[in-house]
Amino acid sequence: MKFSSLQENLAEGLQIVSRAVPTKGSLPILSNVYISTESGRIKLAATDLATTIMTYVGASIDKKGEATVPAKLLKDFISNLSPGTVDILLEDDTFHVHATKSKSKFNSTHAEDFPELPEPSITNHILELDTKPFHEAISAVAFSSGNDTGRPILTGTLVKSENGEITIAATDGYRLSEKILKVNTDQQDFTAVIPTKTLTEVSRIFSKEENPIKFTLSEDDNQVIFLSGDTYVSTRIIDGQYPPYKQIIPPDTSIKASFSTEEFIEAVKLTSVFASSGDSGNAVKLILDPTKQHIKITSLSEEMGEHESTIPANVEGEPTEIAFNVKYLLDFLNNIKGSEIYLETNGSISPCIFRTKEHENYRHIIMPLQI
Fold first, then answer.
1. Do residues 231 and 122 touch, judged by C-beta distance below 8 A?
2. What are the b/e assignments for 113-149, b being 16+ CB within 10 Å?
3. From 99's CA, which of 55, 213, 316, 317 has a CA 20 to 30 Å away?
4. Bridge-partner residues for 53, per DSSP?
5. What is the CATH number of domain 127-246?
6. Which one is the CATH code of 249-366: 3.10.150.10, 3.40.50.150, 3.40.710.10, 3.30.390.10?
7. For 255-311, what is each residue's pLDDT tens digit?
8. Using CA of residue 336, residue 340, residue 341, residue 344, what is the dihedral sign?
């Protein structure tokens, strides 16, 4: 194998596929990146056996071939080269990399030892997703996903297509995020639980892509496929029934409040200094006062001291005190941008719904703490 390519293109391609390289692979070769010549381009691929990422890089090919090379080593090396042409030669299982001012050799492994790569297919794609709304939806939902491998279904994100809408939802059992996207599709309805980690990587990879993302569900192979531009991501669907989360969302609420996001963020961050120290268990309390039209945010720690912030708010309903894990509040505030927050609940032990003025068809639910 012998080819030449631009450093910046190779660096970008290696950065993309390296997202699928496992930290600790069950097979040593999974720490390698697969490289081959194909139709006047270079194919780069990596897999952890559950998720595969492939992308293509333009190149001038002098001799066809294929090999695998340690992914992190090659990625770090290429990314640190100066912009310009990189010449690569595979000879006697040695991967030679020549740049303007440097020459390097990498030990390679035979490509036939690499796991078989799935072939991308767009002939039966279910729908196309606009890149920006998809990226925003994943950013607004993924942080609520669980990470307990003992409950694998909660480490995934629900993607459901029904009646021209895509519902994207994630929960860890204590909080929930849901975003609904309008789509133009005449394809059949479907439901799939996709690993949240993979969805997040897909969102990042395609965030700057101008072309829509083609989404394919292959129930026979238990896989979903994302394809846009020169990059392809395939991942396994998580088996199991996603929790019927809509049952915990109150259809009506008797207590409502709206307030400035900026003021609320400042108050929560100040209170979190006390809540995350001492004996409060990360708990903060929101005191909603409809008479004075304000909300007090207080810490519950007696060991380290106490804090109270007050912000103006439009409050409707009965006076209410609700306690939350401050980490959940901060996660919501760090991932959702907007000028104004809407809060709805039915009381101190009822699920609390958070919305923002700018995010249409989005809601975030946090289960309150019982103190």
1. no
2. ebeebbebeeeebbbbbebeebbbbbbbbbbbbbeee
3. 55
4. 46, 233
5. 3.10.150.10
6. 3.10.150.10
7. 999 999 999 999 999 999 888 776 667 899 999 999 999 999 998 776 777 889 999
8. negative
